[in-house]
Design goal:
The chain is an alpha+beta fold. Helix content is 32%, strand content 30%.
């Protein structure tokens, strides 16, 4: 399954892709694009096996998990990832996103997250999407605010901010 934006092709990772996610070369082969070495320290890459298990067990339904954001260019390259999981309260979804360091500041996180949110609210009929970010992640907070999220609280230790967006 994939989504397309003006600049990105956003590909939902299958269990086979998640197995390949352990190395840039193998993931690049699965996606048909270049994957920078910085993928090796990406949070999405590090959670690939856990996500794969949730997909295979049926805990994550269609569209939930990791989606790779690929820049559609003469030489396609992976620029980051977006992802979603079922909401903790059984309603809505939890959104996450990450841009590889060499592609930060170019709007790819906003573009990818906006496409995934649109799919979730349209295809899945969700009314609420949440996101938790480190209070020191200014760029992530700006992305969420651009996407219409509102801050709804902090974690008990005060380090994480909780954001929520509702369907209009």
């Amino acid at each position: 399954m994939e989504l397309k934006t003006e600049r990105l092709q956003i590909v939902a990772c299958t269990p086979e892709m998640l197995k390949a996610a352990l190395t840039p070369h193998d993931l690049g082969h699965e996606l048909g694009c270049g994957v920078p070495a910085s993928w090796m320290s990406c949070n999405a890459r590090n959670s690939a096996m856990d996500v794969m298990e949730k997909i295979e067990s049926g805990e994550f339904g269609e569209g939930y998990g990791i989606w790779c954001s690929v820049l559609r260019d003469r030489r396609p390259v992976m620029v980051g990832a977006v992802g979603c999981a079922p909401g903790k309260d059984g309603e809505g979804a939890i959104l996450d996103f990450e841009t590889l360091p060499e592609f930060e500041g170019q709007g790819y996180a906003t573009e990818g997250a906006q496409a995934l949110m649109g799919w979730l609210m349209g295809h899945e009929g969700l009314k609420k999407i949440t996101a938790d970010v480190d209070g020191e992640e200014g760029a992530a907070i700006r992305v969420l605010l651009k996407l219409g999220f509102a801050e709804k609280g902090r974690s008990a230790d005060g380090k994480k901010l909780h954001f929520e967006a509702v369907a209009r």
